[in-house]
Amino acid sequence: MASKTFFSKSFLSAYRSLRSNWPLLSLHRSSKDHHHHHLKTHLSNLSGKALVVDVEGGLLRSSSTFPYFMLVALEAGSILRGLLLLLLYPLLCCLTQEFAIKIMALVAFAGIKEEKFRAGRAVLPKFFLEATGVVLEVLSEAKIKMCISRMPRVMVEGFLKEYLEVEIVVARELKVFAGYYTGLMEEEADQYRDGVVLMEKMASLHGSILGFGSKSSPHPLLSQCKEVQLVSEAEKRKWHGVLRPNGAAFHNPLVFHDGRMAFLPTPAATLAMFLWLPFALALLLLRCLLFLCLPYSISVPLGAVTGVTNRLLRATPSPRQDGFGGRLYVCNHRTLLDPIYVSGALNRPIVAVTYSVSPVSEALSPIRTARLARDKEEDRRRMEQLLGRGDDLVVCPEGTTCREPYLLRFSPLFAELAEEVVPVALSAGVTMFYGTTASGFKCFDPFYFLANPWPRYEVEFLPAVATGTMVREGRSSCEVANLVQGQIGAALGFQCTALTRKDKYLMLAGNEGVVEQKKKKNLQRSWTSCLMK
Question: Membrane-spanning regions, if any (predicted)?
Fold first, then answer.
């Protein structure tokens, strides 16, 4: 009995720590704004000056680097690498900061291929931006900015230069052998020597240098600054998140990011995740069986019992009765499960039109799928054929998913197919794992989404848009597509963009996001089987 009580208390403590570190759930704002006012007053007169900021000590709200190495271990490595790093955490607490960082870098990076490592640009910036402190509000006022970090350069440089427009980054270099990271970093003395040379050049060009860092572990390079402002860990704990990653004050808003982790993996949060995994597997199997084997009228209520939250914001449109074929539903793209949730909200089967989906996802889909060929005329013919048969179609004209509150450019083909389309605004929420990826195995996307403790989906059907009438009146299909995009964006509170699938994959995966088709014959067979169902 005592062991059960101890386990329940330990899990509850870890879970509370996980919630406190979850970006989507930690909405508490400190009431002691005089700390912010004091720092902002001290740093406000930066015009024409050079600023040196210690990333761990002055830019981030916590000096702990463990969560960021854990992200590298899990996202660029494997779950076993992450488990090893977690098991080493008690030992890391007994070591000096310098030696602990060396151990974490060795575990996180050893054996990872250099040219395939993209976590520094695709995964970490989201968590760095959410962890930035009050100094960010005045960072842009400095004439030239230099950031120093004890973490490897490949972890911090993309975030600092692309999102904060920092001109100079001084960080540790990782050693590479035969194209793979060894996990060994250059010595701190080498970093110090290079930093001193750069700071001397800054001083000669821009005069005095102002430094900003932490009292508990000031970076040695801050001693080269004429004036230094240090903050304690207690003061940093009172900072709140001054901006969200998509805030306008960032030089470049965060539109795309990759990775499976939806929370900052602090030691307690990571422990809670590993404790949750056995329950997640059982819950995942149960949820899959419910949605695959039972009708929506039964599976949706039972799914809610398991923690799946579904919300329908408006009444569903009825099937067309005018004899002009099926309805065309146009929705934004949040996860691979979008068409299934639209079908469940309608409480009737529909056909999901997709550009590329894995054979595993096709086989497990409870609704019919129709794969397109990325050829406009051929895709038009296929979709018109399905609509003419009376099938209701759902299409995601963005062509790829976007996690942040943005809408990508809508492909205008749907505006040329039907007399009217029904816009559908979709919102999805997760608490532990993201159900999308740009560089991982997409066939696992639905499973990651359903492995969350409380996955959430909101479906809102908007008034039908008479696309056929608009086109006949002289409006182009692109204008109609932008109109539908704007209506969905307004309903969700999302910002419309002209970004495309190609932009996303070039940034996150280093490719254009187009998978080479195997054989045209196989594609035609898949399409024929869809029509025969």
Answer: 268-292
